[in-house]
Amino acid sequence: MWNFLLAFIPRAIVQGVPLLYGSTGEIITQKSGNLNLGIPGVMYVGAISGVIGSFLYENSTANLNPMLAILIPMLCCLLGSLLMGLLYCFLTVTLRANQNVTGLAMTTFGVGFGNFFGGSLIKLVDSDVPSIALSATSSYFSKSLPFASKLGWFGKLFLSYGFLAYLAVAIALAASYFLNHTRKGLHLRAVGENPNTADAVGINVSRYKYVATCVGCMIAGLGGLYYVMDYACGVWSNDAFGDRGWLAIALVIFTIWRPNLSILASFLFGGLYIIYLYIPTGMDHMEYQELYKMIPYVVTLVVLVVTSVRSKRENQPPESLGVPYFREER
Amino acid sequence: METKVAAVSMKNVTKTFGSVVANEKVDLDIYKGEILALLGENGSGKTTLMNMLAGIYYPDEGQIFINGKEEVIKTPKDALNLGIGMVHQHFKLIDVLTATENIILGLEGKLNIKEASKKIEDICNKYGFEVDPKQKIYDMSVSQKQTVEIVKVLYRGADILILDEPTAVLTPQETEKLFRVLRKMRDDGKAIIIITHKMHEVESLSDRVAVLRDGRYIGSMTTKDTTVTEMTNMMVGHAVTLNIDRPDPVNPKPRIVVKDLSVRSEDGIQKLKNVSFTARSGEILGIAGISGCGQKELLEAIAGLQPVETGTIEYVEDNGHEEPLLGKDPLKIAEMGVSLSFVPEDRLGMGLVANMDLADNMMLRSFRKGRTPFTNRRPSKKLAESVVKELEVVTPGISTPVRRLSGGNVQKVLVGREIASAPTVLLTAYAVRGLDINSSYTIYDLLNEQKKKGVAVIFVGEDLDVMVELCDKIMVLCGGEVSGIVDARKTDKNEVGLMMTRVGGDEIHE
User: Fold this and answer.
1) Which domains are present in chain B?
2) How far apart are the first and last CA of chain B?
3) How many Å apart are CA A76 and CA A117, to the nearest integer?
4) Residue B314's closest CA among B306, B305, B322?
């Protein structure tokens, strides 16, 4: 049993990290009243932007500078997701378009964008398999502390991950502190609950919505980058990221809009996401595997039911979630 | 009084919404150390004007001077920086936050809840407020929420205070308390503007009144030197009579008999407890109570919209035949002639569809009557036209979406439609909430007309002065229980007010 856990938990955690980035980003976004269903697309764009950056850098020089090898993909990733965030805000905040439609369109767009450029790069390298491998860059991203492997089970459980995994936890904790213990966080929550009220006390609603959504997108984008560079060892193949973006949105509801809770919840979801690999089904009953893959979504449904029944006001979504704001609306 | 300083001076202020002119060339002065009552009919532009001072709207034309200096108020923040604070009719509070968090919302600097709570307590002590800084807004009563709003404005150091219909939802006792605080603030040198429709409040509280009509400034006068009739005439533009008649009920017969009615809300909270009463034809039965004491549930139970725990509701026909209403679906009940016109707090929540125009809203009641799958728009258009004409609804036309009308006009449309369906029982709740004095009297006349026709009218109201004058009987609810049923001809508003706060209302005489 111990050996099983020792093997399973680290796998669950690396599965959970992209979800954690996605859900932290989405929580910050939703707290501003924007229901960004474009997160899966944003994570795709974040990932492919990072891949493009590192691809160009890897092909431009023979000797990679470790700092640049990390910084270039990261900056590209942040820039790509920022542009997605700006697009979403321009449509929903400035033009007051319907948030659901915009978000869904952005997801479709983001996935297509990723696959288009991913496919183009694959064509460029002309390889036998439909993927590109950026193993050099990836090795920097997935580098863990040198002494981690010497510390036995402790090292394996806690120290065997690349720096982006720790960054995810740090960002989630910081987001949690920001929302609950700072004035800006209070203002952000107010904007999401009741923009009219926030506006009446002089909070710039549009600015908060823009900043929160863009920062949220950038955080979510890092989840895509982590997936390619660390989890997938630098291998990009089209559609590999799958539906993790939707799981991240489900996590937002699961954690009732709390980034600190999301740390554990995303690792749990990561575990549920891959648990089918660890439950022996035999070759005759492959269909059971498909059932196990449903577990995270079933859990989310159950949580939705439970939180709706126990209607504590604090556990409800931000009140104006999904509603565009226009000051002079009568 | 010492020499007065004009705290606010508005000159030539104009504001339009599309083709609707809300304010046209308004000049208004407000002085320090006075309470100004801003009067006007619904849709006369009072709230719009004040919203421009508070930075919610931006004037199209005109200038605003604060303490003699011309200022540009673009945002609520600008207004607050100039010391202007507004308490809106619909509270601008965030339910899931605490009182303190709401009060400090929007301020700069490091977040320090403890220090803020301390300062809030100081303000409360100074003016005699009661606020628990840690209480969540959704746990508060209406009057507590209002207190938080006022403290919020004072916390920011406002010395020009605007209150938009602050007493619309308060009991007489709470109103008195509020007025005491306002007087104290006036004596402290603050300029206070209050928008209200209740003339007796204007008389008892304000130093000066200013009147708006159709978005234009008509004039102002010292409260001491004027009368209710004069003020009303200025508001309406022609002479009006301000008497509510109360014709004696003709041949009253029981129409609705409610026995031991108990209702629990979905969360299991007891909303009504053993309520029994009889509503008679040709009578107006008033139902008084602090808001949220079961008035809504009672009306909904009669209309068949609310599941009932125990008890019976019987509808008595003219020939004495009793027909139970419980268990019937709302449509059947409506067909029997029980008509519900409920004006909820947000006015559009029940009964009208905000995005549909007047004519289509009229059709909501009658669309089932048609035989073909197609709608017949003509009767509803006619009805809409007659309601607009008779109740003097201010609207560009009957094809305007209801959402565009001002609150009072929305209400007229709703009440007008319900009365047009010729009911035998008319249930109204807050029918005159937010309506100006002229429209209110139109509604009272309409109710009296129904009463003369032999309709049993149940009138859930807020303004006790009116209820005492209009109703035949008043049933007082307190926390879902019947606190007492009194003859409106023999009671006064203080007795009713006390019954609202305590079952029986007696214990308070210590």
Assistant:
1) 6-236 (3.40.50.300), 254-501 (3.40.50.300)
2) 40
3) 14
4) B322
Q: Which helix (H) or strand (E) holds B275?
A: strand B270-280
Residue A110: the pLDDT is 95
d(CA B506, CA B166): 28
pLDDT digits (tens, 9 = 90+) for B248-290: 888 888 888 999 999 887 777 788 889 999 999 889 999 988 7
Of A292, A314, A317, A294, nearest to A304 by C-alpha is A317
Test A193 with B97 for CB contact under 8 angstroms.
yes
The confidence score (pLDDT) of residue B330 equals 80
Domain locations along chain A:
2-145+153-315
Instruction: Give the mutation candidate from B48, B58, B96 for the A interface (greatest A CB count, under 10 A).
Output: B96
Q: Is B479 left (phi over 0), alpha (psi -120 to 50) or beta?
A: left
Cα–Cα distance for residue pair B471/B352, rounded to 1 Å: 26
Residue A274 and residue A12 in contact, taking contact as beta carbons nearer than 8 Å: yes
Instruction: Give the rounded percent of residues in chain B with a pLDDT score beyond 70.
Output: 94
Task: Measure the CA–CA gap between B388 and B372, rounded to whole angstroms.
Answer: 28
A142's CB contacts (< 8 A; 6+ apart) are: A162, A229, A230, A233
N residues, chain B:
510
CA dihedral B75, B77, B82, B84 (to 10 degrees): 90
The residue among A179, A181, A201 with the most chain B CBs within 10 A of its CB, best to mutate, is: A201
Q: What are the residue ranges of helices labelled H in B253-402?
A: 295-303, 330-335, 358-366, 377-390
CA–CA dist B420, B386 (Å, integer): 10
Strand bridging mode B216-222 / B208-213: antiparallel
Assess contact for A27 and A97: CB atoms under 8 A.
Answer: no
Structural tokens at position A1: 């049993």
Contact criterion met (CB < 8 Å) for A328 and B93 = no
Element (H, E) at B22: strand B20-31
For every residue of B127-140, DSSP letters joined together read HT----TT-BGGGS
Question: How close A218 comes to chain B (CA, Å)?
Answer: 26
Mean pLDDT of B393-409: 80
CATH number of A2-145+153-315: 1.10.3470
Q: What is the pLDDT of residues A69-103, one digit of tens each?
A: 999 999 999 999 999 999 999 999 999 999 999 99
- Which single residue is written with the structure tokens 């601008």? B92
Q: Is the ipTM of this complex over 0.95?
A: no
Residue A65 predicted with pLDDT over 80: yes
